[in-house]
TrEMBL record:
InterPro entries: MFS_trans_sf, MOT2/MFSD5. One of its GO terms (biological process) is monoatomic ion transport. SUPFAM superfamilies: MFS general substrate transporter. It is found in: Cell membrane. Keywords: Cell membrane, Ion transport, Membrane, Transmembrane, Transmembrane helix, Transport. GO terms for cellular component: plasma membrane. One of its GO terms (molecular function) is molybdate ion transmembrane transporter activity. The chain crosses the membrane at residues 6-22, 43-62, 74-93, 129-150, 170-189, 201-220, 285-306, 318-336, 348-369, 390-407, 413-433. It is a multi-pass membrane protein. The gene is LOC103719073. Mediates high-affinity intracellular uptake of the rare oligo-element molybdenum. The keyword Protein biosynthesis does not apply. This is Molybdate-anion transporter. It comes from the Eukaryota.
Length: 462
């Protein structure tokens, strides 16, 4: 059975290498030296930020377990992280638009470094504080950096199409290659060198500090709406008006929440799905294989987005449909494949089928990230970009908290079936988004008029 893991990992490695080295002029976008310098700087910073995040992932649960906490207490800690992201995400997003995206990125580094420091304490309250700080940092990671990039890209007068190149390369390296190396490095620190399960968090803090130094020394500041008369409530109102007045933004938010909610549910469920009878599976190696599949997806996305005639709104319908089918496989195998009642052993036939399906889903995830970033750059107004992006994360975090709280209440096929339905709905909404985008392409929304109407409106009585 070990041969299967190596064959799958090796096969994906060969395919990714062939895709990257066989790109023709049609797959590449001609850019300028100034843009390449700007892109490389952002990718270095983004990779360091993601390294700080990926290093922590494999050992969070294990660290809490070594401190003597049970499944229920660990579950509450995880819920605190997602709840914090939900409650404070929109606030820090609005502050990023108002006070500056560079400051928000620095705040991310500081918050996550402090979160890493709390891991040295076995006290539940201190660890809870760390999870809250981590939730705030996560909101900034997935909004402030992208908002800064889009604004800075446009401010420097680069071609709009070049933005997709930065997105796809950042995901390929930051969410793929860095994730694999970070997992191996965390294992080296913890097990091979024997520094213990807190050492990956110390390493993460170091990478975050390096990234923060680069941000402070090389990045300029940009804002969403820096006008002094805009308080936090007004920022929320601008974001709400933007979402309510433009169907494209509302559809984009629904699509993102449906896909990411399913993705985070998959993160919690893939391990028990592949080893329902406590089969002996190489978790770290499988995780690295998933990340390699994600790299494959981002490489495919870079080719797709390099073609001006191919619209993101079109091919993402197919991506969501494929991802819906892959998460339906656990339901199908539960009926068609006889499960063994013997504990332990190697992965079953059903597990092998799911492994291939899950790799396909991860490839869809790799296509999703740069593609959704591209659509957000097209449809979300600059004035409240970070605020709106964090608004999108509210239903996502609610969904994940509900799943975490009720993870033992439903059979696993039911959970996967629910995710499959969500992804199918995302495919339908993506189709609607394409239709609406085509009909409005010749008459874009005037966001200046939206802001002026909002400024003239009566203030809310709180």
């Amino acid at each position: 059975m070990e041969a299967l893991y190596y064959l799958l990992f090796g096969g994906l490695s060969v395919v990714v290498a062939l895709l990257e080295f066989s790109k023709t002029s049609k797959d590449r976008i001609s850019t300028s030296v100034a843009f390449n310098s700007f892109k490389n700087n952002y990718i270095v910073v983004y990779s360091l930020m993601m390294a700080g995040d990926w290093l922590q992932g494999p050992y969070v649960y294990y660290l809490y377990h070594t401190y003597g906490f049970g499944k229920g207490e660990i579950g509450r800690l995880f819920i605190a992280g997602f709840g914090s992201s939900m409650l404070f995400g929109t606030i820090v997003g609005s502050m990023a638009d108002k006070q500056g995206r560079k400051r928000a990125c620095v705040t991310y580094c500081i918050s996550y470094i402090l979160s890493c420091i709390t891991k040295h304490s076995p006290q539940f309250k201190v660890l809870m504080l760390g999870r809250i700080l981590g939730g705030i940092a996560t909101s900034l990671l997935f909004s402030a950096f992208e908002s800064w990039l889009v604004a800075e890209h446009n401010k420097r007068g680069f071609e709009p199409q070049w933005l997709s190149l930065t997105f796809s390369k950042a995901i390929f390296i930051g969410n793929g290659l860095v994730a694999i190396v970070a997992g191996l490095f965390a294992n080296l620190l913890t097990d091979t060198l024997g520094f213990g399960p807190v050492s990956p968090f110390d390493a993460a803090a170091c990478f975050l500090a390096i990234g923060m130094a680069i941000i402070l020394s090389t990045w300029g500041e940009n804002y969403g709406d820096p006008s002094e008369n805009k308080d936090l409530l007004s920022q929320f109102k601008v974001a709400a008006v933007a979402i309510a007045s433009d169907e494209k933004i509302a559809l984009l938010g629904a699509i993102q929440s449906l896909f990411e909610g399913s993705m985070y549910t998959f993160v919690f469920l893939w391990t028990p799905a592949l080893s329902p009878n406590e089969e002996d599976i190489p978790h770290g190696f499988i995780f690295a294989t998933f990340m390699l599949a994600s790299m494959l997806g981002s490489s495919i996305a870079s080719r797709l987005m390099a073609r001006a005639t191919l619209k993101v709104e079109g091919y993402m319908q197919i991506v969501f449909a494929i991802s819906s089918f892959t998460l339906l496989l656990p339901v199908i195998t539960s009926f068609l494949v006889t499960s063994s009642s013997v504990k332990g052993g190697s992965m079953s036939l059903g597990g092998c089928i799911l492994l291939f399906g899950f790799c396909t889903f991860e490839a869809c995830v790799g296509i999703f990230w740069p593609s959704i970033m591209k659509m957000r750059s097209q449809y979300i107004p600059e004035e409240a970009r970070s605020t709106i992006m964090n608004f999108f994360r509210i239903p996502l975090n609610i969904f994940v908290c509900i799943v975490l709280y009720n993870v033992d209440a439903f059979p696993m096929p039911v959970m996967f079936g629910m995710c499959s339905i969500f992804l199918f709905i995302a495919s339908i909404l993506q189709r609607r988004l394409m239709v609406v985008a085509e009909s409005h392409r010749s008459k874009p929304q005037d966001w200046t008029a939206v802001k002026e109407r909002d400024d003239e409106a009566q203030p809310l009585n709180i």
